[in-house]
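Why run this: before we spend reagent on co-expression, it is cheaper to look at a predicted model of the complex and decide which construct boundaries make sense. The entries below are exactly what would go into the expression plan.
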Amino acid sequence: MADVADAQGRSTHGRRPWGRRGRLLWQIPDLAAGGMVMVVACTVALFPQAVTSADPMRTGGVPLQPPSHAHPLGTDDLGRDLWSNVAFGAHGQGGAGATALATVAGVAVGAAAGLYGGWWDEGLMRGAEFVQVIPRLLVALLLVALFGGDLLILVAVIALTGWPMTARLVRGEVLALRERDFALAARALGASGWRLLWRHLLPNAFPAVLVGLPIQVGRAILIESGLTFLGVGDPGVPSWGKVMQSAQAYMREAWWLAVFPGIALTVTVLALYLIAEGLHTLTTPTLARQHPLGPWRGERRPADAA
Amino acid sequence: MPLLRFAGRRMATALPMLAAVAVLTFVLVRLAPGDPVYVLAGEGGTPAYYALVRQRLGLDRPFPEQLARYLVTLARGDLGWSLHQQRPVGELIVERLPATLLLAGMAFLVATAAGLVLGVWAAVRAGSAVDRLLLVAATVGSSLPVFWTGLLLVLVFAWHLHWMPVQGMTAAPAPATAAARVLDVVHHLVLPACALALQPLASVSRLMRLKILEALAEPYIVTARAKGLPRGRVLAHAVRNALLPVLTVLGGYAQMLVTGAVLTETVFAWPGLGWLALDATLTRDYPVILGLVLTGAAGTVALNWLTDVLYGVVDPRITYG
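The model came back. Tokens follow.
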């Protein structure tokens, strides 16, 4: 148990956060577990053929068969193998790539707003506020009604509405950091605004962005799967949301149709959130060692427990 | 009165925001392939007929003029005409709004109330097994897709245990007495409200825990403890101050609830706006979705405005210059 308590970050106090990386990775089980799940998920997404020999779209098997040796997760209403659908459905998480774009845009906007201030700040933050007011899922549905259900357009649109969170974060960091002594020193040495930003402010704002990134990717995946669950997207491409949509009609007979794709989706998003959690622990090494209200009645101090 | 003036000023910035959403949706519709005249007038007409329709609808006018007309129509409260249902969009939305407000409102209440209690509990026992368990539960809770939570709840509580109805808002022959009807709706409300509440509940509890722990590190807590105040009183100081940042994010949950409501209503066939949105998407009834986008944006703007004003009421340190 002592190891787990350490991993919460309490006893990493005073250590260099990036030092002895190998050991730290294991001291932060969130990061290790999340990372391992994501490695597995990405491998399956890239090479689904490696884990299943069945064709996800081939119909004609016995429909609604419970999990068995031949079909580890059972079959769906058309006799298609559920495991291969889950494996091939992993690749559908295209929102991840577009989220990277949104993050870059968010960093740029936030940095500009924080550094230049004044009208720039006012205008850009109004823009961010505007984008955050738009109901993303409804706009996605509007686009489907107007342009048809090409999921690629939707993913791009959804990710493009994802930049305000990063922008606000970076703006806040830049505003706080530019008043610090090291920024003042850099300016006194004649550093230009660009150099100040690039060499001094952004590297210090980086941990905050890094922590936010997996959360953004997780949200994009949730929205994307929500859309496929609503029946948007190419019916010929396997996706977790689509399997769960068809599961609704067979809830009483075939629980596995609803349960397994959901587990895959939840574990993926959970892994991303755990990575965010772990990165947060990694970048903020000094967390309180003792409860500020003092030990609870009859409770041992954390120091005793360790 | 400075608070009133502040509320008015925030309102004044909120309206252009809504107008911008309206402009955006208008541009999106105009970018779509296909001529709206063919959609409205049907295929197979003569060119003269199409020209007449175009003129009657004002579609032959310059783009800025069309946009201005659209905005004026919206400002009058006219959200347009549903292509599929052949009824005013405003009427459809008003009809479905109460069901969604009931669902989202209940989910919001459950999420905030339970989130606050769990957050305080976890903060008080920070570092203990209870805290770690709650933290794990909150992390898992925020990764659960709302529609999957709904499916699992239906699977367990409706299909297997038969405690709750599978879907809908009322039983098929509605109960005779008013009291029984209310109970019937509540019975139908339990599962969808729980499904919708889970994600905001998880994030409220985590934020509350964090903010209380931060507040407990402040010097005034040391003072309070040094004065010998009982634990509960000290905690009450911290909770009051932790509530402020939690209040700010509540506006953000409007988004979560709008998205969640569409998915939850689909799972539970709840007759609200979300179901209307899906219906309209499948029938390509874009004026209805347009109206829903504007309604959703207006709801979010209104909640943000309310949060700002409430912030001023709750936090005496805020002054309005």
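The radius of gyration of chain A is 24 Å. Chain A touches chain B through 56 residues (CB under 8 Å). Bring this page to Monday's planning discussion.
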